[in-house]
Inverse folding.
């Protein structure tokens, strides 16, 4: 006997739920795309804004952390003002701030508008997840979240390619301008097709103002520490020490507050469920690995190997295609294979892909780099689909919004931490390798004397040829030190994947929610 639709599922208004799923995926794809589309354009943005490359990474991390700040309260807002209205407000704010980003005259204003863009985009992904969880019965959550997975996994993979083409062909400002027509289309279709259930009464929980203030203060200070730590020499700086203390105290107070508040803004009591907690940890690791590699692989290709922005983006395209092909397979496997086993397998594939990346050298071919991303792309659906489909199973009624907020918060904070930590490792290990290599460039080394003499002869001979040869050898040494630092990053990420993989096996298969 067929199950009658719940009030939540009447959001379809009698229309095909797959049509609703495609419509709400449009804005989410656009939002997640913006977490990665600027990766290959950072050098161009930094040059246009007269800023350093490490400063330009704030464009990425400020977006992720503002996105993370709004996520905890998104469940409360959706419950209070209605899911459709909240979703459309988020799309409108995201679209308007995208236009402001395109027109920004300075780096500080661009970062400010990216914060606004992150606040608007923060409510899109959890809204779509709860809509999908409500309009589809539990037995169809796997295929439904596979469709959603295309937006949040493939978008970061395709973003650098699109961003590189736009940057090389037109201007970096167009990577933000393209959001405007897409946002307008999403607003129109959402207003036309999506319906809030008229018969469902809205519960208006009390606003946990203190909890929201603590999460904003804690995550905001944590982001400042992650972004400016390397530039300020970490804990040698009083500035970093104070912000670290504020972040730690605020987040600790947040945990105590939310575990005792009747209507917490961050529903931490959900983490008492072991399976839901495991899903959040693995999602944090997935964001950590995905966003850091999505930034640093194009950066490596451009700075060390001389790729253009478009060519660097094209290296990631095969990985996006592999992810798209694997998504339906992962959706099907979720119904037949224990989700913990799938997640462990996915993390093992990520570790293997990062091991492949650790074999890079200055002479790698396009195919070698592209295959590394393909291997990574094959593993991502085995992580994302079982995480998002399993996290909602067995939750108490009415907790979908809160659960979605936590899952997306874990992904974004993981991505921000991955980018910041990898940037620090890159700077420190590049200095280490450069100092070690310089120690070998002495007249006592026969290989150094022969190379210097050969380069000097090729570059004209005499004192000028010798000076040019020294400059050339310095450039080669710098590129080799950077390459070794990138290899260290990939090895560190591989170790993280190896550590997380067994944790996924703690996940328990749970029955879906009752009718």
């Amino acid at each position: 006997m067929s199950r009658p639709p719940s009030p939540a599922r009447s959001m379809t208004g009698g229309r095909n739920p797959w049509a609703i799923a495609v419509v709400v995926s449009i804005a989410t794809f656009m939002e997640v795309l913006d977490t990665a589309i600027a990766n290959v354009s950072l050098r161009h943005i930094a040059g246009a804004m007269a800023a350093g490359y490490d400063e330009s990474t704030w464009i990425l991390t400020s977006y992720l952390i503002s996105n993370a700040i709004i996520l905890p309260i998104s469940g409360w807002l959706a419950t209070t003002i209605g899911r459709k209205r909240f979703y459309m407000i988020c799309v409108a704010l995201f679209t308007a701030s995208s236009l402001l980003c395109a027109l920004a005259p300075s780096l500080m204003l661009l970062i400010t508008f990216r914060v606004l863009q992150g606040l608007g985009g923060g409510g899109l992904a959890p809204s779509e997840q709860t809509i999908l969880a409500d309009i589809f019965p539990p037995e169809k959550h796997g295929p439904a979240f596979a469709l959603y997975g295309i937006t949040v996994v493939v978008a970061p993979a395709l973003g650098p390619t699109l961003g590189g083409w736009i940057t090389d062909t037109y201007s970096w400002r167009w990577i933000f301008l393209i959001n405007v027509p897409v946002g307008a289309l999403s607003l129109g279709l959402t207003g036309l097709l999506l319906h809030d259930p008229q018969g469902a009464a809205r519960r208006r929980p009390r606003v946990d103002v203190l909890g929201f203030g603590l999460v904003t203060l804690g995550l905001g200070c944590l982001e400042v520490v992650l972004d400016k730590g390397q530039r300020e020499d970490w804990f040698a700086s009083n500035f970093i020490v104070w912000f670290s203390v504020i972040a730690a105290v605020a987040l600790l107070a947040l945990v105590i507050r939310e575990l005792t508040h009747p209507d917490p803004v961050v529903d931490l009591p959900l983490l008492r469920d072991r399976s839901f907690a495991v899903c959040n940890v693995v999602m944090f690791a997935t964001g950590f690995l995905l966003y850091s590699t999505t930034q640093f692989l194009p950066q490596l290709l451009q700075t060390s190997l001389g790729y253009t922005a478009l060519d660097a983006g094209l290296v990631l395209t095969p990985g996006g295609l592999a992810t798209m092909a694997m998504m339906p397979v992962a959706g099907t496997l979720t119904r037949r294979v224990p989700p913990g086993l799938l997640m462990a397998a996915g993390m093992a594939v990520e570790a293997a892909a990062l091991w492949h990346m650790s074999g890079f050298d200055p002479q790698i071919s396009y195919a070698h780099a592209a295959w590394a991303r393909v291997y990574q792309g094959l593993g991502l659906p085995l992580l994302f689909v079982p995480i998002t489909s399993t996290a909602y199973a067995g939750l108490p009624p009415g907790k979908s919004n809160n659960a979605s907020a936590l899952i997306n918060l874990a992904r974004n904070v993981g991505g921000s931490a991955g980018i910041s930590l990898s940037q620090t490792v890159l700077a420190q290990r590049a200095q280490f390798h450069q100092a070690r290599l310089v120690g070998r460039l002495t007249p006592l080394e026969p290989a150094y004397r022969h190379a210097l003499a050969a380069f000097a002869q090729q570059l004209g001979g005499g004192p000028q040829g010798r000076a040019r040869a020294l400059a050339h050898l310095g450039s080669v040494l710098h590129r080799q030190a950077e390459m070794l630092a990138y290899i260290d990053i990939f090895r560190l990420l591989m170790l993280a994947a190896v550590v997380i993989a067994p944790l996924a096996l703690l996940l328990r298969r749970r029955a879906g929610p009752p009718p």
